[in-house]
Write a structure and sequence with these properties.
The protein is 48% helix and 17% strand. By secondary structure, it is an alpha/beta fold.
Length: 485
């Protein structure tokens, strides 16, 4: 009996660790957790995902520890009641149920802890506000958008750092709690600027961050069909991103990418301060880039607008999307008083953000890594770079992708169109994972034998090793989180 109990507890520990990991991967949101579970309920009930090495491991935060503790307490309570009410037979049945349904325990534990978590978040939030109040001269710049916000944030940091001490939210610390943590752990009296990346999964998320940091400059990089499962419509996405413009004071500056259809199609902009538009194609842009050229050394372009007239920039990073992000950062830097020389120097020192159109060479093969946070517009720009980048005669261009996620009812159509676009510019396509396989293959059906199927990224990488030769170019477009198969 003791031996069986030890086996049960070992299995439960492994299963519970997997379930809380998936809950963390789904942002502690029961609705997203349920969507993940029902995508393959049998495999997920049996925790088959344990057989694959994680891309992003479980982070043992204090919240995770609290959820695990309450989940264990609930499980032990059920086991104890089963033993008292039905003896060994009912205990065995309950033990099996606990192993199979402990995801419900995780969700229930999260619900029980929600008042506690709310109090903890409130205390941290108020402490961060107190710290900000002690830095009255700090200038806060908010950056948001369906995509491009991380690159823009990093590019602006590089430009402003030519002259000033700058704090920037690290990595993906783009939630309220991530911003709070950055303030409490990293903000110092010598910081002149604070660049805050603002992410959102639902309406009101950006407004909450703005109430905390009170930005005076806001950049909206794009509005597109991201997180439609939680937003419901593009209009809700736009309204949420524009919460940043709405929060700016009368002496503030709003900066928007008018090449983004989701922004340009807005009937009005809720900005009390000065509004500046930028782009490459938009005729309405106050700042417009042109003469964009790619070379093995990077990208050059001209920027017209503002007090400096026409300025020529050169940067090591590639892609039209990156050019747009650089323009947004350069316009913000000019609005903040950075002279043109410092802006040009900062842009010339930029490095590609990891997994966002970063280019490297491996064994003579050029690798374009655009694996992070893919979306239709960004993917189209990546295919443009793949098509236009210099390569030896006869070189193959290969795309490795699982398609897009979190696009709601638009997902199949977008993935089919993506597959069709790939067939027009590439010599090979490796479709990774099952999620969008049918839609991608339908769109890229004309590729015939140049269309390959891989169950996961590891198998896809092995295919690349067999197919690609020195001189070939491989584009990795998007890499799904562990919660997608």
């Amino acid at each position: 009996m003791i031996f069986l109990a030890l086996i049960f507890y070992a299995l439960w520990a492994v299963s519970l660790r997997y379930d809380i990991w998936m809950f963390q991967q789904n942002s502690y949101m029961p609705s997203r957790y349920y969507t993940w579970f029902k995508s393959d309920w049998l495999a997920n009930s049996l925790s088959k995902g344990l057989l694959s090495p994680p891309k992003v491991p479980l982070v043992w935060t204090r919240r995770v520890i609290r959820i695990v503790a309450v989940s264990v307490a609930l499980g032990l309570l059920l086991l104890s009641l089963s033993w008292k009410l039905g003896g060994t037979a009912l205990l065995v049945v309950m033990a099996v149920l606990v192993l199979l349904l402990d995801k419900l325990l995780v969700v229930l534990a999260n619900l029980i802890l929600s008042p506690v978590e709310a109090l903890i978040r409130r205390w941290y939030y108020q402490d961060a506000r107190r710290i900000l109040d002690s830095h009255p001269d700090l200038v806060v710049i908010g950056v948001t958008g369906s995509y491009g916000k991380t690159s823009t944030k990093n590019y602006l940091y590089r430009i402003l750092s030519e002259k000033y001490n700058v704090l920037v939210t690290p990595g993906n610390y783009n939630t309220t709690l991530g911003v709070v943590r950055t303030i409490r752990e990293q903000l110092k009296p010598y910081h002149r600027f604070f660049i805050v990346e603002m992410g959102a999964k639902q309406p009101g998320d950006i407004r909450e961050i703005c109430r905390l940091v009170r930005p005076t400059v806001g950049i909206v990089t794009a509005v597109g069909p991201m997180h439609l499962e939680t937003f419901g419509s593009i209009e809700n996405v736009r309204r949420t991103k524009f919460e940043l413009l709405e929060a700016l004071p009368e002496d503030g500056v709003g900066i928007v990418n008018l090449d983004s259809e989701g922004i340009a199609s807005a009937k009005s902009f809720p900005c009390r301060g000065r509004l500046l538009g930028f782009g490459i194609r938009s005729a309405e842009a106050d700042y417009k880039a042109g003469d964009v050229r790619y070379s093995p050394n990077g990208t050059s372009f001209t920027l017209e607008g503002g007090s400096d007239g026409r300025v020529v920039y050169h940067t090591p990073v590639m892609g039209e999307g990156n050019v747009l992000d650089i323009i947004g950062a350069a316009v913000a830097a000019e609005a903040l008083g950075v002279e043109v020389g410092a802006r040009k120097t900062g842009v010339s020192k930029l490095a590609a953000v990891e997994h966002r159109l970063s280019i490297s060479t491996r064994g003579g093969i050029t690798v374009i890594d655009d694996a992070y946070n893919s979306n239709p517009e960004g993917a189209a720009m990546a295919l443009d770079v793949l098509q236009r980048i210099e390569a030896p005669e006869g070189a193959k261009r290969i795309v490795v992708t699982p398609g897009f996620v979190e696009m709601g009812p638009e997902q199949d159509r977008a993935c089919e169109e993506f597959g069709r676009h790939i067939a027009e510019v590439a010599d090979g396509l490796i479709v990774v994972n099952r999620l969008n396989r049918d839609a991608l293959c339908k769109g890229a059906g004309s590729m015939g034998e140049a269309l390959y199927i891989a169950e996961d990224l590891r198998e896809a990488s092995a295919m690349v090793a067999r197919l690609a030769l020195p001189g070939d170019i491989v584009l990795y477009e998007n890499d799904l989180p562990d919660s997608f198969k």
